[in-house]
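Notes to self after the Tuesday call (sharing in case useful).
The group wants a holo model before anyone commits to mutagenesis around the pocket. I volunteered. Ligand is zinc ion. Logging inputs and output together so the record is complete.
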Amino acid sequence: MTNSELRYAHHPNDVKRYTTQELREHFLIPELFKNDEINLTYSMYDRFIVGGAFPVDKDLQLETIDDLKAENFLDRRELGVINVGGAGVVEVDGQDYELNHKEALYVGKGTKNVIFKRKAGEQPIFYLNSAPAHKEFPTKKVGKEDAEVVHLGDEKYANKRILNKLIVNSIVETCQLQMGMTELVAGNVWNTMPPHTHARRMEAYFYFDLEEGQTISHFMGQPDETRHIFMKNHQAVLSPEWSIHAGAGTSNYTFIWGMAGENLDYGDMDKVDPDNLK
Ligand SMILES: O=C[C@H](O)[C@@H](O)CC(=O)C(=O)O
Ligand SMILES: [Zn+2]
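Result:
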């Protein structure tokens, strides 16, 4: 079963007046993984789709959704998958790709069949991002050893973290999609601080590896008009092109970032000095 929900885009002046509940309704994606379901959120921000596939008792086929008005989900789209659970398999037009914990798969436009499967005795958790695509690029697995690793932050600022670029154009050819995973070192809590915006691209964050009972305060909004959303493990949040996206946890955690839009230039960011935030 493939379910989907539509989310509209917003003007920043309207978002200033949102209540806590409205902010959560529009930007938070609270539940991605339900037994034997694929759950998708179709956002009007660059038509980016955020989703989860959680095969427990059966294999799950990625079905087309109404919003696409396309025969197959990937007729005019590309897909990125990162497995945050135990070993699993993604079958792409008859070919099996084994994804271990924290491994990624890029699936190109034009693919007809994508099926998410367990490996015997294992429970994979597949996190999905998809963006419109104009060109077919080959499907490619990005394992841990293929990642481009960047060490960021400093213990002194509680933001020491390891950024793994997975689906980026130095590793795999894509039309719009960029995805990666940032791991906070134990004792460090701040991600993406100093924060940034990139009007050229929207972004979605998915938080995981957060200890039971802990929480992350995710910060969004224009740099001089910020709001926060408290998030739990395995929740995602949409970041408009005009918004910062940073967070502080009550412990360390890992998160997946995914982007789409005008360019594929990871470094294209407008940084904000922390003491200029409001
Ligand atoms: O545009 C890039 C994204 O916001 C993230 O890659 C930032 C991030 O993972 C981090 O600083 O920890
Ligand atoms: Zn960003």
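Two things stood out.
The first helix runs from residue 12 to 15.
The mean pLDDT is 98.
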